[in-house]
Structure formats: structure tokens, C-alpha cells
Design goal:
The chain contains 20 helices and six strands. It is mainly alpha-helical. The chain has a domain of about 90 residues: Outer Surface Protein A, domain 3 (Alpha-Beta Complex), CATH 3.90.930. Helix 2 runs antiparallel to helix 3, helix 6 packs antiparallel against helix 7 and helix 6 packs across helix 11.
């Protein structure tokens, strides 16, 4: 019997709404493509990335690339067009276009940290420390972190106001508890499309700025500058929060930074409570006011502060408010410290000698073999979920957690007979396999 449960039966009304939604976005794409404005051509390409549109075909990719190339030829200095081509290009196979657009943005916006992220990402991937230092210094010399989110959102709002959708509420498939006001529809669609046009990966700033043993003060100073640019001059809350994380991992934050992060988290929590309150009939209007403020101020954080003013809440939290998402919480600082210990204990240069010779004797190791900790060998254990991390100075091993008792026994004894592990490992073959692995990794050596 092939019938599906009722929950999986297709809903004709919803399917019709989704079909109308796909047709609508196709019509928007076609209309923008025929426009005489090069920005419209670039914006048209973003409708191809909307998840409601049918699967893209190779000819769609070529059409997107042609539109972007045409837009850049007509308006070679339009930063929004270049940003779409560089970082929001649905035609991912056409990397040459994205790369050239990104390079043009660096020429036009040298003070925008966001356009220099590619250089840092490339340097980190190559593990080129000099290039990483140079990229961080370049980022530190900028004055803003602009992902063109506001400019893109404003342009898309205009698009969806020019080409309104009559089926927006039906296409939501009943997910909303109330009808979306008509004036909010263009903002809601624009926001969903904008979210798919993000900046290049930003996590490498965290990796490059993370404090390490022997880190130079020059890198720490650059990271502090980058963090404060993202906090004070970022256009999104994501940029602001990443800025605080940069300060945390580089150990360059101050009490003032901790207090500032607390105020920002308070604003975000209270504003989201208001906007996401489905039982609140004013929540839709709050969303509309918030998005208008974001566009007019150019700052998501400032828009949240204005929302606090509207609902008569202070911009600073009461003293007893608990900041559950603080980037400087004791738990986050503890995890940073633990992560640094793990990196230190698994990336030190090896000081061991003779491990290769010992590995030749692996097959002779059995219960009667006596093994000793090799002189200078590092061995630290960390338990993570179902895994034991064995940190050996120049490397790390991951072993099942049930080996933890035997590993702690080995770690605590200067020497032992393999059979001495019987309380922890009942099986002789398992004992031999574990000890052979640790000999091969250079922690232990067999007595000769």
C-alpha cells in the first residue's frame, strides 16, 4: 500500500500558492532583466537564488553571468553591482567574474574592511604567516565594515514595491499566525533575499587573531583595531558580534568593551522578543519600523536602539539582567583557554628521537613487554563527548572514550608491563593494539 500519512499528503491550496510564488519570482527576474537600469540587471540575478524558484538549469547560469557582465560594463564603478557579482553571484561556476569584481571593489573601497577579507582568507589557507600579518594590518587600517546589506536591502525593497506579490501570505504555508500587512511584504521578501547575499567568510579573522604563545604585540594591536571597527562601524549585528569575538580571542578587550557588548545583547534580546511575539498584533508593525530604521540609519544596532526607545525600554539593562549570550562570559573564556591548551599541546615541535627504530619492533609487543615513557614526551588527555583527545606535543590523537582509564594509567606510570593494563583493558589483544599505537606515535618505547 503506497498511501502516505495525512501529514504528508499534498495540500492543493499550498501547492497552487507555491506555483504562483515561483511564477511571480520568474516574472520579477524577466522584468528586471528587460529594464534599462544596470542595477536592475544585477538585482535580477538574485531572484535566481530564491529557494522558491525551480531548479536552475545551465542556461540560467549563463544568463546570470551575462547580466552581471553587462551591468559591470555599463556601470563599472557601481559598488552594489560589484558586490553582487563578487559575493552574491548565483552562477558559482563563473569564478573569474567574481574575482575581478572583488578586486575592483578593493580599488573603489579601500577603507572597507569587508572587501579585504579574501586576502586574509587566502593567506590563512596558505599558512603564510607574513601574508597573514600583512592582511591583518590592511584590515586594521580601514574605517568601516560594510557588507552592503543596507544598500542591497533598500534596492530590493524598491524592486518588490515596484513588482508586488499578491500571493505572499498564501506562500507562507500557514507558518505565520497573522496576515502580513501589505506594506511589510516588500521588506519581508527583500530581507530573505538579502540574507542569501552575505560577505565572504569571516571566521578566518577569529583564527588569525586568536592569541598564541609568542604572539607579537603588533598582531594583537591590529586585531584590536579590527574588532573595534567591526563593533563601531559594522552595518549588521553579525559584524558587531564578530568584532567582540575578535577582541575576546586576541585578549585585547577592556571593561568598556564588556559593558558595550552587554548593552548590545540587551537591545537584541528585547527587540527580538517584540518582533517575534506572534501573539502581539503590533509585532508586524514593529518589524516594519525596525527595517525602515535599519535602512535610514545604515546600522542594524542603531535600529534596535530606536526600537527600545519606541517601547519605552532603557538602552542599558538593569544590573540584575543576565546576559546569556555574552561573548565575554566565563564559559566562553574557559573554552577559549581550553582550546588554546589543546592547540599548544598538539602543535609543539617534536623533541623525540628513536621512535622510528622502536616502531620496527611493534609486532613483538605483547603482555610481557615492558614499556617506558619516552624522555621529553608530552601526554595530556582531554575528554570530549565520546572521544578522548591524546595531546602529544606535536600532534593529537582521537581515541574512543572507553580507553580513557587505560590511557590515564599509562600517563601516570613511568614504566609498566603491558599486562599491567588488565584491570582497565581485559583483552590482551586490545592491550597490545593500544600500546603498539602509542609506541608508533612516539609516546612509549619498549625496554630492550
Amino acid at each position: 500500500m503506497n498511501s502516505r500519512p495525512d501529514a504528508e499528503q499534498p495540500n492543493p491550496q499550498q501547492e497552487a500558492a507555491m506555483s504562483a510564488w515561483r511564477d511571480y519570482h520568474q516574472s520579477v527576474f524577466d522584468s528586471l532583466s528587460r529594464s534599462g537600469d544596470p542595477r536592475d540587471w544585477a538585482l535580477a540575478t538574485l531572484t535566481m537564488a530564491v529557494r522558491f524558484v525551480a531548479n536552475k538549469q545551465p542556461q540560467d547560469q549563463d544568463r546570470v553571468t551575462a547580466l552581471l557582465e553587462h551591468a559591470i560594463r555599463v556601470a563599472p564603478d557601481d559598488s552594489l553591482i560589484l558586490w553582487i557579482a563578487a559575493y552574491a553571484n548565483p552562477a558559482a561556476d563563473h569564478l573569474a567574474l567574481s574575482k575581478s569584481a572583488a578586486q575592483r571593489l578593493q580599488h573603489l573601497e579601500p577603507q572597507n574592511a569587508a572587501v579585504w577579507l579574501d586576502d586574509l582568507n587566502s593567506a590563512v589557507q596558505r599558512k603564510d604567516e607574513r601574508a597573514i600579518d600583512a592582511a591583518l594590518a590592511r584590515l586594521a587600517a580601514t574605517t568601516r565594515f560594510d557588507t552592503h546589506t543596507v544598500e542591497l536591502m533598500k534596492a530590493l525593497v524598491d524592486v518588490y514595491q515596484r513588482y508586488p506579490s499578491p500571493d505572499f501570505n498564501a506562500a507562507l504555508e500557514g507558518a505565520a499566525s497573522q496576515e502580513i500587512p501589505a506594506e511589510l511584504m516588500p521588506y519581508a521578501i527583500a530581507m530573505s533575499v538579502t540574507a542569501m547575499a552575505g560577505p565572504p567568510p569571516v571566521h578566518q579573522i577569529i583564527n588569525a587573531c586568536r592569541a598564541k604563545p609568542g604572539q607579537t604585540s603588533v598582531r594583537a594591536g591590529d586585531c584590536a583595531s579590527i574588532g573595534h571597527v567591526m563593533i563601531g562601524h559594522g552595518d549588521t549585528m553579525l559584524a558587531n558580534k564578530l568584532g567582540y569575538s575578535v577582541l575576546r580571542v586576541s585578549n585585547t578587550y577592556t571593561d568598556e568593551d564588556v559593558s558595550s557588548a552587554r548593552n548590545d545583547d540587551w537591545a537584541q534580546e528585547k527587540v527580538f522578543e517584540r518582533m517575534l511575539g506572534k501573539a502581539d498584533p503590533t509585532s508586524a508593525q514593529a518589524i516594519l519600523a525596525f527595517q525602515r530604521d535599519w535602512i535610514s540609519t545604515g546600522s542594524e544596532l542603531e535600529a534596535m536602539r530606536l526600537q527600545l526607545d519606541r517601547i519605552d525600554l532603557p538602552r542599558t539593562p538593569p544590573s540584575d539582567w543576565a546576559d546569556a549570550s555574552s561573548p565575554f562570559s566565563s564559559e566562553r573564556l574557559r573554552k577559549d583557554a581550553e582550546g588554546e591548551v589543546i592547540r599548544f599541546l598538539s602543535t609543539r615541535p617534536s623533541l623525540l628521537r628513536g621512535a622510528l627504530v622502536d616502531s620496527l619492533e611493534l609486532e613483538t609487543i605483547g603482555d610481557d613487554t615492558i614499556v617506558r615513557r619516552r624522555d621529553g614526551a608530552v601526554c595530556e588527555l582531554r575528554v570530549r563527548d565520546e572521544v578522548v583527545l591524546v595531546l602529544l606535543g606535536d600532534r593529537r590523537l582521537e581515541m574512543p572514550s572507553w580507553l580513557e582509564p587505560a590511557l590515564r594509567r599509562i600517563r601516570s606510570e613511568p614504566w609498566l608491563r603491558v599486562a599491567d593494563l588488565e584491570p582497565e583493558l581485559a583483552d590482551a589483544a586490545s592491550r597490545a593494539v593500544l600500546v603498539r599505537r602509542l609506541v608508533r606515535e612516539g609516546l612509549l618505547r619498549p625496554e630492550r
